[in-house]
Amino acid sequence: MTSSIRIKNICELPIISGSRNDTRKKISCITIGQREAEEQFSSDIHLDAFIVLLVLSGKGHTVINYKTYDIQADTLLLLSSAHLFHFGECSDDFQCQCLFVSKAFTDEMDSTDMIYRRTKYGVRLYNEPVVPLEHSHAGLLAERLISINKNIDRTEHFYHKEVILNRLFAFYLDLSDILERTNLPHTNGCLTRYESIIKSFIELLATHYRKEHKVDFYAAQLNLSAHHLTQIVKLVTGQSVSDFIFEMLFSEARNLLTHSKLSVQEIAATLNFSDQSSFGKFFKRKAGISPVDFRKDALFVEERTE
């Protein structure tokens, strides 16, 4: 039985959500151990972000888009919003540096975005997102990630964002240089038809889910019938197209209720519900409580942690 997919914004991850630094809700760089890997990434998760995972020690396995990879120290994982992933069977000494760069932050990256796009390496790294590194290269990237992490917390700096971007730019340059020198796993340069459809569907969804809630829209964009798209997504992921759409909406609704000052009515409009009542019914079906009560609970928790 395929496990349920969790769709989240990076600010909803427990390892990030408790931070008082708002910048960490958009970009975060942390080190996790075996416990965090298995507690928070033990079932398929989709994050609308560019993700770098650098294994520092230990071993385990990761499942990315339903393909299993063994991982160990000096293994690099490069994931985009078109990847679903989870960890499993991590050893007690497992440690991994994690860089999460949200879509909201990459939209502000200016020239750094060019480096970000280069490091994705298109189909090759979509097909084979796990890259074994030389120890010296892994060490260099680990140093760059530590520098990014330190500067995220320099909130008193007059040029806080620019300093982070500068460190991020240096990381992407070194990453691109390493990838140019690394013999990447060979692929035939193309995805299977089903892989291509799933990749395109998830990328479309990440762009349009706030406004487009119907399967027909995504099917039409992919030149498929709604029935055919539904069959493919169900076969590959075990989830329906509607499951993906509604999980994206629910994730963004939680995010806006927790981290924005928009009224419930404004959130309903932002997410293209016909009115506040239909949004409220949708949210209560998913959360078990109303949007108003969810926001009250979220504010109470935030006040308790301050």
UniProtKB/TrEMBL annotation:
Gene3D superfamilies: Homeodomain-like. The keyword Transcription regulation applies. SUPFAM superfamilies: Homeodomain-like (SSF46689), Regulatory protein AraC (SSF51215). Residues 199-297 form the HTH araC/xylS-type domain. One of its GO terms (molecular function) is sequence-specific DNA binding. Keywords: DNA-binding, Transcription, Transcription regulation. It comes from the Bacteria. InterPro entries: Homeodomain-like_sf, HTH-like, HTH_AraC. Pfam families: HTH_18. This is AraC family transcriptional regulator.
